[in-house]
Amino acid sequence: MIAVHVRVSGRVEGVYYRAFTRDKAIALGVKGWVRNVPGGGVEAVLEGDRKTVGELLKAMKTGPTGAIVLGMELSELEARGYEDFEIEY
Q: Architecture of domain 2-6+14-78 in CATH?
């Protein structure tokens, strides 16, 4: 199991980016959360096996229709054992 913190910049607000990320995470079995960042952008914590987290990160690079992802910053974290994937407000 790995855990990754990701910060996404670009046009990722108002295009259902968080819901897109949550739906993909649930489909892949990835746990954690996603939320908007004050001042623009989105951040998320993803936990799962390396392959599924990698698949989710690949999907997040494109995002939903209307999104324009300009950058992604990644850092590894220690896994906390999230039980599901949620949108935080």
A: 2-Layer Sandwich (3.30)
